Predict the structure.
Amino acid sequence: MNPRRARPLLGTLVEITLSELAPRSDAGCAFEAAFGAAERVHRLMSAHDAASDVSRINRAHPGQAVAVDPWTHRVLEVALEVARITRGLFDPCVAPLLQQAGLLPDFADKPALPWGDYRALQLLGDNSVRKLAPLQLTLDGIAKGFAVDRATEALQAAGVAAGAVNAGGDLRVFGREAQPIHLRHPSCPGRFSFIGRVRDAAIATSGGCLSRKAVAGQELPHIFDPRAKRAFTDTRSASVLSRECVLADALAKTVLLDAARARHALARYRARAFVFEGDAMRRAA
């Protein structure tokens, strides 16, 4: 039986499976390295932690440079690139909506800011960032996928030749053998559809009914439509298959909100998308 461990991290359960270890590799050290990578992402990018890089950026005044970890800087690069390619369909500046809904804390010394523009965030070459105008960030829509990628790299560096990292449905598999991938039906969580076998790939799923939190007597999804500036309450789900989980995580939100508009981004990153509507699944791109 393949060794498997799980820990609560990133607001979900992170499960790691070791399928093949190189000679003289230590499974315990591999698990600790991978979970350590996920914990580092959680510590740096959680909007629920007042000391995180994200919270420090949110508290900073426009024009003030904020030094961040290289991992945070990299996630911001990817987030802003996807935001530009999708023309704001993926938007890391939806934090004010999440704060107003009670889904995110506001650590700023003032009431929640109005809607900010992601184009007002400037990335500097020394792993610093600067806001050119008031805005509030959240990386919740992309950091989990990045954590899966870094945990995978940690496993490989520790001598794991094949395995999988699953963070609440954000999954990456690696190794010589292709792995079967099944997608969960959003309207019937106990049912799964087989979409094929993949090797060295990642998949992430987003859906309004898949991740909800009770706030003031309401079950609210964690996904907000930046165009309508409201919670996404549709019952469909979208999954994206990509080479990196950070891309699959971000792109799944764009496909969920507007599959036609997301096609350019999917083609740019050579990613594939699947959409569930009721019991039917279709290939989006």
